[in-house]
Amino acid sequence: MSKILYISSEAFPLIKTGGLADVAGSLPIALSKQGEEIHLLLPAYPQVMQQVENTQQLASSHYYGLDVSLLETHLPNSDVPLWLVNCPAAFERPGGPYMDSDGQPWHDNALRFALFCQIAVDIALDRLKLGWQPDIVHCNDWQSGLVPALLASFKQRPATLFTIHNLAYQGLFSQQTFTDLELPGNLWQPSRLEFYDQLSFIKGGLVYADRINAVSPTYAREILLPEFGYGLNGLLQHRQARLSGILNGIDQTVWNPATDPHLTANYDSHKLAQKSKNKTALQKQLGLPVDARIPLVGMISRMVEQKGLDIILGAMAEIVNLPIQLVMLGNGETHYEIQLVKWANNHPDKLNVVIGYNEILSHQIEAGSDMFLMPSTFEPCGLNQLYSLRYGTLPIVRNVGGLADTVVDANDLNRKSKTANGFVITEQSAEALLTTLRTALGLYQETAAWKKLQRAAMKGDFSWQRSAGHYIKLYQQALSDRDQAVV
Predict the structure, then answer these.
(1) Span 272-461: which CATH code?
(2) What is the 3-state secondary structure (H, E, C) of the chain?
(3) What span, in angstroms and rounded, lies between the C-alpha atoms of 293 and 444?
(4) Within 13 Å of residue 101, how many CA atoms lie on the same side as its CB?
(5) Residue 424 in contact with residue 399, Cβ under 8 Å?
(6) Is 141 left (phi over 0), alpha (psi -120 to 50) or beta?
(7) Cβ–Cβ < 8 Å for 77, 128
(8) In angstroms, how far is CA 169 from the centroid of its own chain?
(9) Are 219 and 381 in contact (CB under 8 A)?
(10) Fold classification of 3-249+465-484 (topology level)
(11) Left, alpha or beta for 102 (phi > 0: left; psi -120 to 50: alpha)?
(12) By the 8 A CB rule, do 326 and 286 touch?
């Protein structure tokens, strides 16, 4: 058993902007169930404080002239201790955790998350006298990237693991910000935190952590390449011996078609006929023609370039002429939202676009759709394809990142070996998307073959228990590598 300080800037169900929250809300619970002693550290955003109960103050201190207190409660629906970094000047504000109500990054994000990292370091070194010191500090994404860098010079320090959820977000700030944050001067070097005359928070994790991991094996390989490395591929190649990939899991109690309370009809792989009732209900709810024979394709996504919106729009003139219905839920960049809504208004019998996010509707789309569209340009892990597999909704995906690790194309060979569970788009183009979509539509007409694919999809084990076991092994590697860390 190890003592683990798990550091995240978001955690479901308290606050969520993306997949990091799903991981931080599930992995600590799975690790705890396997006997690890884990504490989750999270900023005390207003949205978090509104949902937690029975908080008590453990310690108080000052960072950058601001009053900071450490509060303790529990992650909802678990026994995992939750420590909240309470600093009203940094975290008590409207909007999201990283952006204001207008969608602009908070002007003081560097200060906010440097403060978050500083208290994490003090916890890790037991400077706050909490009577608990971790063996391992598990950092996630740029918001906690300074922690391994600030711990590296201490001989009696915990081992550090840094998880990359999305390398595109790096926490880049000016050189003046580096000075203002009073970081150790020796960190301002290209081999350390400097990145083309900017301060890079994420480099703190990539340079100094005892172990680095990405959220899927394929993504761990892809980020070594210029195409996916965002200028950091050289550094990652240098540290390749310390880099690995562990596929994210999903909460199989929340995402379970047999018990999901949001569905019109529950079902499993032995009662697939019930799935069609959810399709009928979704068609009615969204004002689409009710027809069990027409394949319904779902998509739940941020509407940004990464998610393949360009090739979808490039193919839309032909998609609306195919014998399908398409349902899209999400929000993002305004120009994508406007174009998709325009297409939906012009083709209301074929396309329904819901701008925003709706947790209940997302469950209903997963259950009611026959296929799920996810043509991402890159995808570190991806969760919706895992939900889709669980719900017998066959994914149509690009062969990148976690999508490549989880979806096996329904070609003849894979169908014969009974490993096929979806459809793979082999290049990022509208033409390739349409070709794969037409292949899926053709196979949909073969009812017996389609049901075999659905059952194969639903057999997959994407539980957090499986992933947690891999993380426990990685923690042991980090502990053994600690003495060889870069200083």
Answers:
(1) 3.40.50.2000
(2) CCEEEEECCCECCCECCCHHHHHHHHHHHHHHHCCCEEEEEEECCHHHHCCCCCCEEEEEEEECCEEEEEEEEECCCCCCEEEEEECHHHHCCCCCCCECCCCCECCCHHHHHHHHHHHHHHHHCCCCCCCCCCCEEEEECHHHCHHHHHHCCCCCCCEEEEEECCCCCCCEEEHHHHHHCCCCHHHCCCCCCECCCEEEHHHHHHHHCCEEEECCHHHHHHCCCHHHHCCCHHHHHHCHHHEEECCCCECCCCCCCCCCCCCCCCCCCCCHHHHHHHHHHHHHHHCCCCCCCCCEEEEECCECHHHCHHHHHHHHHHHCCCCCEEEEEECECHHHHHHHHHHHHHCCCCEEEEECCCHHHHHHHHHHCCEEEECCCCCCCCCHHHHHHHCCCEEEEECCHHHHHHCCECCHHHHHCCCCCEEEECCCCHHHHHHHHHHHHHHHCCHHHHHHHHHHHHCCCCEHHHHHHHHHHHHHHHHHHHHHCCC
(3) 9
(4) 2
(5) yes
(6) left
(7) no
(8) 12
(9) yes
(10) Rossmann fold (3.40.50)
(11) alpha
(12) no
User: How far apart, in whole angstroms, are the C-alpha atoms of residue 3 and residue 137?
Assistant: 9
- At 84 the pLDDT is 98
Is residue 72 within 8 A of residue 58, CB to CB? The reply is yes
User: From CA 172, how far away is CA 186, in angstroms rounded?
Assistant: 18
Residue 168, number of CB atoms within 10 A of its CB? 10
How do beta strands 66-74 and 56-63 pair?
antiparallel
Q: What's the token pair of residue 327?
A: 């349902």
Cβ-Cβ contacts under 8 Å for 14 (sequence gap 6 or more): 25, 42, 45, 47, 48, 51, 52, 75, 76
In angstroms, the CA 321 to CA 52 distance is: 49
With 0-12 / 13-18 / 19 or more C-beta atoms within 10 angstroms meaning exposed / middle / buried, residue 4 is buried
Q: Please tell me the distance from the alpha carbon of residue 480 to that of residue 487, in angstroms, as a whole number.
A: 16
- Residue given tokens 């939900």 in the structure block: 387
Q: How many residues does the chain have?
A: 487
- End-to-end, the C-alpha distance of the chain in Å comes to 27
- Which residue numbers in the chain have pLDDT < 50? 485-487
The order of strands in the sheet holding 325-330 is 351-355, 325-330, 296-300, 371-374, 394-398, 423-425
Strands 56-63 and 296-300: unpaired
Tell me what pLDDT residue 146 has: 98
Domain assignments of the chain as residue spans, ordered by start: 3-249+465-484, 272-461
The predicted structure's pLDDT at residue 486? 44
Q: Are 9 and 97 within 8 A, CB to CB?
A: yes
CA-to-CA distance for 138 and 115, rounded, in angstroms? 17
- Which pLDDT belongs to residue 484? 64
Nearest to residue 31, comparing CAs of 80, 72, 96? 80
Give the CA angle between residues 248, 253, 259 to the nearest 5°: 140
